[in-house]
Amino acid sequence: MLQTQGSKGREADQPISGRALIDLYGPRDAITTEVLDERYLQIDHRVPYEVGGDGSDLDPDQFMLLDASSQRSKSWSCEHCENFLSLHEEETCKACFWASPAGYEHVAMEQVRRVEIVWRNEEIEHYDQIKSAASKEGVSIPQLIKSRLRKQGSLKG
Fold it and tell me: What is the pTM of this model?
């Protein structure tokens, strides 16, 4: 069963059904793009309701599906963003990674780009290889991946 997300006094009832979002996006986390069992997904506003309102016009594009981890990361980032705290500009939120992970201009008003990668099942062996190589080189996993992409010519600079 799809979960609804309520916080800070907001009722857990969402103005849109999880089924409508699954029909639109599939049963996947909008941040990681991982396909998940529906019971792990939560409905969340793309733009925090404190900035954009409650989405009462029932437009499914105003909502996204997230697992609990992605939802918490998004909430924390938004709750500490200057736009959320004082500016309340809906267009700024819409241009953010947390609202539009497939095409965004910033992450919480900072010039940052993110890639969320999840390794599952048989892919975990690949992750373990990357982790081991990073440890041997004394770098983080993201640093190793960027370095390897530069070395093979996929990245310039």
Answer: 0.84
